[in-house]
Specification:
single chain; 455 residues; FAD/NAD(P)-binding domain; Flavocytochrome C3, Chain A, domain 1; eight-stranded mixed β-sheet; 15 helices; 18 strands; binds adenosine-5'-diphosphate
Length: 455
């Protein structure tokens, strides 16, 4: 079955929908193909937070920030391994992207921010419900309004070329083979490869079956392979990020643990001792946890912190499930919680007491925790057992500042664009929390615009 359009987008996650909308806004006829039976990808299951320097909440709070500071955080957070041109594009356009989501896509942002590890200032906007659901819902609504077709259950399997130019993609549905011909070209927005065990092991032997993954099932690196098959270059494939606060049984990212990101909660080991700064980078905390007894950590907070952060309200279903399964406990005394998990009770109480001392002086003498230190003293207490899981693949297709895919000689592959987690080199060795949503927005928009405007 043959379809003819100006632009075909592979993947209806965040980057794909954003690119499709921008291409349409610039006059193109657009179709999106999505291999799953539902849109959203990893964006849907993310917290949806968006790092934007100089944003409106910062202005309200009188927090000073700049694009330059954000740029430096990206570079430093990735251990100086980012492509500086791409990092600059992200830093310079992040605020505009957030305004576009708010004003053109009607994404509702809450009247607060989160403070993610590795950022030097609080700058992460929070979509309603602290969830990617709000983003995907509004993007799908906009796509529909604009008449963009999203073909679900449609798996892109091969790029079609003519005269050295990408002119479409072959795709498979359950019952048929399709050819999506695209006059302007194809945008790959198929996400990373966190759910592809073989691919993970191929590039980084440490990321084997022992490590769980937060990713949805469809995130198997397809776009990277499609690109490679026609000579596209890849970069940084070995840099795979784990998220520290995940379900120790099934790998799901635990939003209940976001109490930590408000600057509350301490992280201890089975011996009852803190072992890392709770607002450190994801890779640092993850690695620290794997070094502890049983490869797990325990986040401890109190009732006031739970109420103040609204975490239980926002993630009610997850919270209740964790309680039911005994992975999270609500206890009147720390002794009781320690007993449930077999944590050293005396040391745990000692750690809490010491920490509370630091909250009084505002200085964490052990780990120099940044952000406001909040006292942990209002029972009931909560203890959450956590383990790291694979979360984000930093590597992927090589693109330039116009989101054009490059070949191994650094030359533009005509008609081929890419945006989102499928691309590499923006975040270096380590992507900071809330930078992915900024990335998919900024580069999704660039890809959507350029595929129409570039000749
Ligand atoms: P990003 O964060 O970069 O936007 P997401 O993970 O949110 O990426 O979305 C990627 C989407 O691409 C997912 O919905 C995924 O199911 C889809 N996808 C992956 N591979 C293919 C493919 N071969 N054909 C069509 N869609 C795909």
């Amino acid at each position: 079955i043959k379809h003819e359009n100006d632009v075909v987008v592979i993947g209806a996650g965040g980057a794909g929908l954003i690119a499709a909308i921008e291409a349409k806004n610039n006059g193109a006829n657009v179709v999106v193909i999505e291999k799953m039976e539902f849109p959203g990808g990893n964006t849907l299951i993310s917290g949806g937070e968006y790092a934007a320097p100089e944003n409106w909440i910062q202005n309200q709070k009188g927090l000073s920030d700049s694009k330059e500071t954000f740029y430096k955080d990206i570079i430093k957070g990735g251990d100086n391994e980012s492509d500086i041109k791409l990092a600059k594009v992200l830093a310079e356009n992040a605020l505009n992207g957030a305004l576009w989501l708010r004003d053109s896509i009607n994404v509702t942002f809450e009247n607060r921010q989160m403070f993610f590890g590795g950022h030097s200032v609080e700058r992460s906007l929070v979509p309603e419900g602290a969830s990617g659901v709000e983003l995907i819902k509004k993007l799908m609504k906009k796509a529909q309004e604009l008449g963009i077709e999203v073909h679900l259950g449609t798996n892109g399997i091969e790029l079609i070329r003519e005269n050295n130019r990408v002119i479409g993609v072959k795709a498979k549905t359950e019952t048929a083979l399709h050819e999506y011909i695209a006059k302007n070209g194809v945008i790959i927005a198929s996400g990373g490869f966190g759910s592809n065990l073989e691919m993970r092991k191929k590039y980084n032997s440490k990321m084997d079956e022992k490590i769980l993954s937060t990713n949805t099932k469809g995130i198997t690196g397809d776009g990277i392979i499609l690109g490679e098959n026609i000579g596209a270059d890849t970069v940084d494939m070995e840099y795979i990020q784990t998220y520290p606060v995940c379900d120790p049984v099934n790998g799901s990212l635990l939003y209940t643990g976001d109490v930590r990101l408000a600057g509350s909660a301490i992280l201890v080991n089975k011996e009852g001792k803190r072992f890392v700064e709770e607002l450190e980078r994801r890779d640092v905390i993850s690695f620290a946890i794997t070094e502890q007894t049983d490869g797990v950590g325990y986040l401890v907070w109190d009732q006031k912190q739970l109420d103040d952060t609204g975490v239980k309200k926002h993630h009610k279903e997850e919270y209740e499930g964790l309680i039911k399964r005994g992975i999270l406990v609500k206890v009147n005394t720390l002794d009781e919680g320690a007993k449930h998990f077999n944590i050293d009770a005396k040391e745990l109480k000692n750690s809490v007491e010491k920490y509370n001392g630091y909250t009084k002086t505002g200085k964490d003498l052990e780990f120099e925790k940044r952000g406001g230190l909040i006292t942990l003293e209002t029972p009931p207490y909560y203890i959450l057992k956590v383990a790291p899981a694979i979360h984000h693949t930093m590597g992927g297709l090589v693109i330039d500042e116009k989101a054009r895919v490059l070949d191994k000689k650094g030359k533009v592959i005509k008609g081929l664009y890419a945006a989102g987690e499928v691309t590499g080199d923006i975040h270096g060795k380590n992507r900071l929390g809330s930078n992915a949503i900024a990335d998919i927005t900024v580069f999704g928009r660039i890809a959507g615009k350029n595929i129409v405007l570039e000749k």
